[in-house]
Amino acid sequence: MQIHIAKADITEMAVDAIVNPANSLGIMGGGVAGALSRKGGPSIQKEAMSLAPIAVGAAVVTTAGRLWAKYVIHAPTMEEPGTKVGVENARRAARAALIAAALRGFDVIAIPGLGTGLGGLDPAEAARAMVDELRAHRQPKPTTVYLVDTNDEILAWLEGALRSATS
What we know:
Elements: E1 2-7, E2 17-20, H1 31-40, H2 42-50, E3 60-63, E4 71-74, H3 87-104, E5 108-111, H4 123-136, E6 144-149, H5 152-166
Parallel strand pairs: 1-6, 2-4, 2-5, 5-6
Antiparallel strand pairs: 3-4
């Protein structure tokens, strides 16, 4: 698997699927979820809510509305919107997203900092957990993962965690 760090607007990524650090209810009000819903349209949230509740550690796939991506992988980091999360939730969400991508045969996915926004998780802890899960994933798909954010601090932690994992 190729892993790239990208400073970009995740809603503009032309990938097979974007990972949404969701809540278990499928409500897409704030953070990355809110941005995906605003740009992709209300059909994404409607579809996600129809599949709820989604346990932390599980993931569901919906269509992506008007986004460039074809699908959204909803991998909850929290049960209810705005809940503060621990590092294990980010780890479980990353693992669930990768498994969902493998099962659906997605080649290229984009993952934001899981739990680092509304979840309030320390970016360094989240980055290590995400990279650990990427390195542990042994399926042939996805072939390429973009770790995406617009926040330079989060990008630096992701890059550092990736460098530490490969050295």
